[in-house]
Design brief:
4 helices
Length: 192
């Protein structure tokens, strides 16, 4: 009788263990699918940077023809966009190399933390060093150098300020979209 009771407990324990294992597999699969979805948010930032670089490079011949900006400014703009595209590729490469369906969570968390740190460093340290001189040069080129006679250069700054604000909003939106996606992946792994 005692052997039968023990055997019944053993069978129930095996069933419970099997159910827990299935639940862990489902939970693991859901987490990995969620991480793949978050990766799309990270990749949207990369695609935006590449699109901006292509547009800048594509507009250079038109700019040269229209002479809206000086040739040195156009060349520096193209070089700056190429530099940003290469840096974006470098920062995104470890994330692109991840396989969210097979890589262990510790590796994913480490790569996401590094990505987030590099992206924040880019925003807070590199962006001002690149953009402040470039924006100042753009204001000089467009407002002071090309202002028609009788028109205040300060008035000519209005479209540049509007473009700067729109660019800043779009850039910050994509930056925080990528950083928040990386942080969400880290948080989900920590909860696991």
């Amino acid at each position: 009788m005692e052997d039968m009771h023990f055997e019944e407990l053993r069978n129930q324990f095996a069933i419970l263990k099997d159910q827990l294992k299935k639940q862990e597999i489902v939970s693991d699969h859901l987490l990995r699918e969620t991480m793949k979805a978050k990766k799309r948010n990270i990749n949207s930032t990369k695609r935006m940077c590449y699109a901006c670089a292509v547009i800048a490079l594509g507009l250079t011949p038109l700019n040269y023809h229209l002479q809206a900006w000086s040739l040195p400014f156009s060349i520096v703009t193209c070089l700056m966009m190429l530099f940003c595209a290469v840096a974006t590729y470098y920062i995104h490469k470890p994330v692109d190399d991840l396989n969210f369906l097979t890589d262990d969570f510790a590796t994913v968390a480490r790569v996401m933390a590094k990505f987030k740190k590099q992206y924040d460093q880019w925003l807070y340290y590199v962006t001002p060093v690149i953009c402040i001189p470039w924006i100042s040069w753009a204001f000089y080129e467009y407002a002071w150098k090309r202002a028609p006679e009788g028109v205040s250069p300060w008035f000519m700054c209005i479209p540049l300020v509007i473009g700067l604000i729109i660019g800043l909003i779009i850039g910050l939106y994509f930056h925080f979209k990528a950083v928040n996606a990386a942080q969400d992946i880290i948080d989900q792994i920590d909860e696991q």
